[in-house]
Design goal:
Serine Threonine Protein Phosphatase 5, Tetratricopeptide repeat, Ribosomal Protein S8, Chain: A, domain 1, three-stranded antiparallel beta sheet, 9 strands, PROP1-like_PPR_dom, TPR-like_helical_dom_sf, PPR_rpt, transit peptide, PROP1-like PPR domain-containing protein
Length: 837
């Protein structure tokens, strides 16, 4: 459909020129070729025909209305929009049809021109939202989500809030496109899309649950993107707190702290709930130091924490009694009133520190506050006190706690009964523990496997292995029988489980409560096998027959039994069996296997397992290092001693506390091995753990360790200047031991061994030692204990015996001791002949 311009022939139109968006929107005429999307509606002109039809547009009459020609209706001019309301309706329909045809770019041009001409945004209400929604859906299908997001941003800029005008179908289509990005895990584009929609007023919360998206970022360990996404929503504070807790559950403390920092910046201060949450996360991650730093930050900003923050901080530091009590005093100083949880945490702290008297004092203070109506003790308080007395083996005090509970009408729960059973068991009163178990059943509390395990553990600790097996078999076959009165039976809860019921005396009844062992139960029985590895293996097989799968602890116990019985092969087979059944080996499993090899004196295999453990990215712990170091008496060759010293230095570099006592014994035993007697003169060293406090001597041991690890030539000069008699003896004997090791490998001695003693004085353990004393000590061990020929000074002199004293006329010591090559070779031959015999 087209409109006739005139009956006379027209000259060809001039070449089209690129017009600005505003100029293109000034005059709109009907199209001549583009189809109308709605055949039943009136034909709407398109912007592409403006230039061709502008010359034929009639001139408006003085009243402002356009005139008509004889063959067509004249359209209103865009310049008349401001004074002609009907023109706004007309051009709004034009823009709506453009949008309905999917021509969102042309729609924006028309809308922007219309707004510029009309001077207000009232035209936006005249836009046909159905056509606009249809165009958005079509654009999504043809061009994708980025094109639609760009359109929505531009429309919002010119005053057309398209997101508000979209119908349900269009909104669902946009949301589905966003969810597709999420399903494909294109997270960066998804967040950008949600941000753009939120800025345009779209209801983004209905697209997907925000926490589902934040959990994805938590799994990806991407706190930056999680923070960016959470800030899109009005309830971003709650989302950030939940994200912080989600990182905390995964023990990602670094990322949780980053989210906490973002939350603090957003709020412009510290939120007490967020502060409490991050301290709890620090506690869960085992970082009490970081919890203290956060608390100190509060105090530095002159913020008074509330009771909950104080409680979280004390709970995070429950292992440090001194710190927690200082926090408690600071809490009182600030006027923050402690609640029941505060006192319970202090009781827990005393229990961890085994400060039973202090715990009892706090408990008495709590009872006084309860009497005054300030506090109301709960089951946790009583259970904690029972645990305190159980570990202190104060079963009478624990029993008094039970009486206190019943006096105030508090009912004992499973934890309380278990603590009471443990109190009797730890005190060696196994029969009393069984009576408490029966009383627990009569009180209507269902016993679980851990209650039975406590009694079995007490029997194993007291080495009553046979009784443990007899009691276990009795429980398995007959259960535990308890006599109940009619009143007690009537008070049993509905979910109380028992397998049999028999009539009892005085109208009562006898209940048979079943015993269902767990993997832990069988692990206890395996420990009751002592060194009988076959019996332990049969217990494990019985566990499998009952449908239970042995865990890592089960296999570790079996390996330990193999090691104790010096069955190295059995321990290694158990270790490999663990791998085959799919149990991931940890440091404890390797340590037990290494211990088994050490017990069997197979140091080569122990060191191989040590290296294998590190190859699997497992860091040795203190027990691993000590297991290898305590085998010092089994190291005989220089190669083995060097490996042991390397392990020692590795332990120091790993940050573990230095057990220099073991290093000292290792070096002493190895160096004294050159002497004829077993162990040499060990009393000379005064081996005790007090030497660990002498820092200078420990540094000396480090130097000796590095010296022994060097593979240098055996013919060398030994400098002992500045050393004490003990230190000089260790250095000289270590050097001779290295010479002996090399001689056994076929390397002969070719030069003299020279020992430089010097003229200086040294101080060791507050006793001044002169070079003469060091010289006499060295000559004593060389001549008397080793039978070597020793010369003092650079000149050739007859052999010097340690029994000779200095001449009557004092002379300046030469500061040098020499052992000739002939003397060394003769000594080595004697040692070799003695070793053969």
């Amino acid at each position: 459909m087209g409109m006739a311009m005139t009956s006379s022939p027209q000259p060809p139109p001039p070449p089209r020129r690129r017009r600005s968006r505003l100029h293109s929107a000034t005059t709109i005429s009907a199209p001549s070729a583009n189809p109308n999307p709605n055949p039943k509606a009136k034909v709407i002109p398109l912007l592409s025909d403006v230039g061709r039809l502008q010359s034929a547009t009639p001139t408006p009459t003085p009243n402002g209305n356009p005139s008509s020609n004889s063959k067509g209706k004249v359209l209103p001019l865009l310049s008349d929009v401001g004074s002609n309301p009907s023109a706004i309706d007309y051009y709004s329909r034009v823009a709506s049809n453009l949008a309905g045809a999917g021509r969102l770019g042309d729609f924006l041009i028309a809308a922007e021109g219309l707004r510029a001409a009309s001077g207000d945004a009232g035209f936006a209400a005249r836009i046909n939202w159905r056509l606009l929604s249809r165009g958005v859906v079509a654009a999504l299908r043809e061009h994708g989500l980025p094109h639609v997001l760009e359109f929505l941003r531009d429309a919002d800029r010119i005053g057309v809030h398209a997101t508000v005008m979209l119908d349900a179908d269009a909104s669902d289509a946009v949301a589905a496109a966003c969810r597709q990005l999420l399903d494909e895990r294109i997270m960066a584009e998804f967040v950008e899309a949600i941000e753009a929609l939120a800025n345009c007023g779209f209801f983004v919360k209905g697209i997907v649950d925000p926490m589902d998206v934040l959990k994805i970022f938590v799994r990806k360990r991407d706190p930056d993107m999680a923070i960016r996404y959470a800030r899109i929503f009005p309830h971003s504070q709650l989302l950030l707190c939940n994200t912080m807790e989600a990182f905390g559950k995964r023990k990602e403390l670094k990322h949780a702290l980053k989210v906490f920092g973002a939350l603090k910046d957003q709020l412009g201060g510290i939120n007490m709930f967020a502060c409490r949450s991050i301290i709890d996360i620090c506690s869960h991650c085992g970082s009490s130091v970081q919890a203290r730093i956060i608390f100190e930050g509060l105090l530095a900003e002159k913020i008074t924490p509330n009771t909950h923050v104080f409680n979280s901080l004390m709970n995070a530091n429950a292992h440090s009694m001194s710190y927690n009590f200082s926090v408690y005093k600071h809490m009182q100083k600030l006027g923050v009133r402690p609640d029941l949880a505060s006192y319970n945490i202090l009781l827990k702290t005393c229990c961890n520190a085994r400060e039973f008297n202090t715990a009892q004092e706090i408990y008495e203070e709590m009872k006084k506050k309860e009497h005054d109506g300030i506090l109301k003790l709960d089951v946790f308080t009583y259970s904690t006190m029972m645990k305190v007395f159980a570990e202190a083996k104060m079963w009478k005090m624990a029993s008094n706690i039970k009486d206190d509970m019943r006096a105030v009408g508090a009912r004992l729960n499973l934890v309380t009964w278990s603590s009471l059973i443990n109190a009797y068991a730890n005190s060696g009163l196994v029969d009393g523990a069984i009576e408490i178990l029966e009383e627990m059943i009569r009180d209507g509390c269902q016993p679980t496997a851990p209650c039975f395990n406590i009694i079995l553990t007490a029997l194993v600790k007291s080495c009553q292995y046979d009784r443990a097996f007899r009691l276990f078999n009795s429980w398995i076959e007959f259960g535990i029988k308890v006599s109940l009165s009619l009143e007690q039976k009537g008070s049993l809860p509905d979910n109380f489980t028992f397998c049999e019921e028999h009539p009892g005396t005085n109208g009562g009844t006898i209940l048979v409560v079943p015993f269902r062992p767990t993997v832990t139960t069988y692990n206890i029985l395996m420990m009751a096998c002592g060194t009988n590895d076959e019996r332990a293996k049969s217990v494990m097989n019985e566990m499998k027959r009952n449908g239970l799968c042995p865990d890592r602890i089960s296999w570790s116990i079996l390996m330990d039994i193999y090691g104790t019985s010096k069955n190295r092969n059995g321990a290694i087979q158990a270790l490999r069996r663990m791998q085959r059944v799919g149990i991931k080996l940890n440091v404890s499993a390797y340590t037990v296997a290494i211990k088994a090899c050490v017990e069997s004196k197979d140091l080569k295999l122990a060191l191989h397992l040590f290296e294998e453990m590190k190859a699997h990215q497992l860091k040795p712990n203190m027990v691993t290092y000590r297991t290898l170091l305590t085998a010092r008496s089994k190291y005989g060759s220089l190669k083995e001693i060097q490996k042991c010293l390397a392990i020692y230095q590795e332990m120091r570099q790993a940050g573990y506390q230095a057990y220099d006592y073991y290093l000292k014994e290792l070096i002493v035993e190895w160096s004294e091995g050159v002497l004829s007697s077993d162990g040499g003169n060990r009393n000379f060293y005064h081996l005790d753990r007090k030497d660990e406090r002498n820092e200078s001597f420990n540094l000396f041991l480090e130097k000796v360790a590095r010296f022994l690890q060097k593979d240098v030539d055996q013919n060398q000069t030994v400098d002992v200047r500045g050393l004490s008699k003990v230190e000089a003896r260790i250095v000289v004997l270590s050097t001779l031991r290295k010479i002996k090791e090399k001689h056994l490998l076929g390397r002969a001695v070719q030069d003299d061994l020279v020992i430089i003693t010097g003229h200086e004085k040294t101080s060791y353990t507050d006793v001044e030692t002169t070079a003469t004393d060091v010289k006499h000590a060295i000559t004593a061990v060389l001549t008397d204990e080793l039978g070597l020929e020793v010369f003092v000074g650079p000149e050739s002199r007859p052999p010097v015996s340690s029994k000779l004293r200095a001449p009557s006329r004092p002379r300046r010591p030469q500061g040098m001791i020499k052992i000739t090559v002939n003397s060394l070779n003769h000594w080595l031959k004697r040692k070799s002949a003695r070793d053969v015999q």
